[in-house]
Amino acid sequence: MPTSARYRPITVERLVDELADRVAALAAGRRWTRVLVDGADGAAGAGSLADALVGPVRVRGHEVLRVAASDFLRPASLRLERGRTDPDARYDDWLDVAALRREVLTPVEPSGTGMVLPALWDAGRDRAFRRSRTPLADGGVVLLDGELLLGRRLPAELSVHLWLSPGALRRRVPEDTRWALPAYARYEREVRPATTADVVVRVDDPRRPALREG
Question: Name one GO molecular function term (predicted).
Answer without folding.
Answer: kinase activity
